[in-house]
């Protein structure tokens, strides 16, 4: 008999992109939050062998590249089970939308498979299998509010944020996550080149302004050490001691945050929030400041006030300005926080009142932008709903 489960979506409450790891992935820091929008999966095990995926949405692959296929293949081996697995996906979430649709589908397929077989994989083994298939799969084995580190696959449950009205706008734009990372790397490299170029120009200018006798003296000195700019990984080599010193001074004026700096700052903000001492003097990253601090919503508002942001906005919005406009619409409609989710293209806004969220969704729909009002899900709501 088929087992049916809901496959919920997620948003990212802040996403910090760190340095590239040896395997090609980037270090990440993010807070995942599950929400009420979902697909529906049905899994059955019949006579035969192999894995069959059925989906009416032509954008969803039905071969070995589908995350459902990958996780079920591993799960069948772990359970030492036999049979032909049929997975039916009723797709309601956008493809390449930044809502974790494919990852959520895979975890839903895993859980439905266990129900269909009446067998269970131990929790730690589930997480291991999920991490092998994709970076953000493990979060769907926890639900609610989840901290993601590493490449996003290392997950830790955070104190649950209260359910909150939310609008999910899903413009029909496909944003490739690998391309978004490539754009981010290019942006970082351009920034490093600009820094070094400006440093060298300043150094050269300072040298030409030196009196002739000082320049002559400098040229007769022995070669100095290798000097490095602390804010980048590019070394400046010089045989002239004065120029090297000037270069270092110039670089200090052009300091740019490194990936490690951004990761550390994200960690400090999160620690401040978890310790109950948020940066209340700061301003929200977007939207309007909180006026009412009643009810349990204080937790979420305090998190927003730490200044969390999604780094992908810096490279996705310039390529897709219509997504930036959707964010502005949500802010003008009263969202106290609005952001791109993941690498996009979904954009969401958090609201205090359900009525305001519904009006904002209606406003976007009138402008031709698909949008839905829903709520965030606590961990208990997530598992009950599934």
Task: Describe this protein's structure.
- The protein has 386 residues and is α+β, with helices and mostly antiparallel strands.
- The protein folds into three domains: 3-160, Ribosomal Protein S5, domain 2, CATH 3.30.230.10; 188-253, no CATH class; 259-378, GHMP kinase, C-terminal domain (Alpha-Beta Plaits, 2-Layer Sandwich), CATH 3.30.70.890.
- Helix content is 41%, strand content 21%.
- The chain has helices at residues 67-79, 101-117, 123-133, 177-208, 212-220, 241-253, 259-274, 298-305, 313-319, 321-332, 354-366, 379-385; strands at 3-20, 26-46, 51-55, 84-90, 145-149, 154-157, 165-169, 227-228, 235-236, 337-340, 347-350, 371-375.
- Strands 1, 2, 3, 4, 5 and 6 form a six-stranded mixed beta sheet that branches. A four-stranded antiparallel beta sheet has the order 10-11-7-12.
- Helix 1 runs antiparallel to helix 3 (123-133) and helix 9 (313-319) packs across helix 10 (321-332).
- The longest helix has 32 residues, at 177-208.
- The chain is globular, with a radius of gyration of 25 Å.
